[in-house]
Each structure stands twice: as C-alpha cells, then as structure tokens.
Amino acid sequence: MRTAAVHGLLCMALALAGCEKHENSLSVTATAYTSSPQETDSTPSVTAWGDTLKPGMKAIAVSRDLIDMGLTHQQDVKIQGFDGSFRVLDKMNRRWEKRIDIYMDNNRKKARNWGKQEVTIFW
Predict the structure, then answer these.
(1) Domain locations in the chain?
(2) In CATH, which of 3.30.950.10, 2.40.110.10, 2.40.40.10, 3.30.590.10 is domain 22-122?
(3) What gap in Å lies between CA 102 and CA 33, rounded to an integer?
(4) What is the pLDDT along the chain (123 residues), one digit of tens a residue?
(5) Whole-model pTM?
(6) What secondary structure letter does DSSP report for 109?
(7) What is the rounded radius of gyration, in angstroms, for the C-alpha atoms of the chain?
(8) Residues contacting residue 38 through CB under 8 Å, at least 6 positions apart
(9) Closest residue by Cα to residue 82 from 112, 58, 107
C-alpha cells in the first residue's frame, strides 16, 4: 500500500477513535504551581504574558526553550494523563529547560502531591 494511503487510513482510524492528530510531541518534566505569592510574586494571578489566572482554568507555564518549539502564548496542549486541553498562559524562569508547570488553582496540597513527573505533551 502506498504511504499516503496508509497515512490516510491511520488518520481516519484515529478520528473514529476520538483521537486528535497533533503535529508535535515531547517528553518534559512537569511540576505544578498555584496562585500564591510564595510561589510567584506579589501578583500571583497575573502571568508573564499578562493573562489573569482564575480557579478552574486549565493553564500551563512553559520553559522558554519550548516557546521556540511552538508552545507560544495561547497554544492548546494535551498532557498525557489529563483529560482535555491546557492553554499556554505563562512562561517560566529562564533557568528551566524542557519543563512545564501545571496551574492548580490555589490548591497547594494538590500541587505538592503532584510533585515532579515526566509526561508527554502534544500540540
């Protein structure tokens, strides 16, 4: 079978299974953060891009090297192990690489329990 035909069949099978096609995927370190001054600054609900975080939002911060890979402001991202999409609304300190920070409202216990994990992201 021709490669294009195989690709077409695979895409159709994924669509029927309810999966979305993503252009990129990457294994990253995922940590968690909340809207608390102890973790951010004196304006913990305002992101580096100027968005305002609110409880219930599915948002992430990304390390700046990932921005160059296409994980720019407002990009939708799927995270392995989570339902739905997260939106890139914040960026992390320049010292981090291949890393995301998952917004967990004001729930510091939930964020601490998440800790640091390796996940695959899709965008």
Answers:
(1) 22-122
(2) 2.40.40.10
(3) 6
(4) 555 554 445 444 444 444 456 689 999 999 999 988 777 777 889 999 999 999 999 999 999 999 999 999 999 999 999 999 999 999 999 999 999 999 999 899 999 999 999 999 999
(5) 0.79
(6) H
(7) 16
(8) none
(9) 58
* Residue 32: Cβ within 10 Å count: 21
Q: How far is CA 51 from CA 60, 70, 91, 94, 112, in A?
A: 12, 19, 11, 19, 24
| DSSP element (H, E) containing 114 | helix 108-114
CA distance 7 to 27: 24
Q: What is the DSSP string of 5-63?
A: HHHHHHHHHHHHTT----S-EEEEEEEEE-S-TTTS-S-TTB-TTS-B--TT--EEEE-
Q: Which phi and psi angles does 28 have, rounded to 5°?
A: -135, 165
Q: Comparing C-alpha atoms, which of 81, 62, 78 is closest to residue 70?
A: 62
The number of angstroms, rounded, from the C-alpha of 3 to the middle of its chain's C-alpha atoms is 32
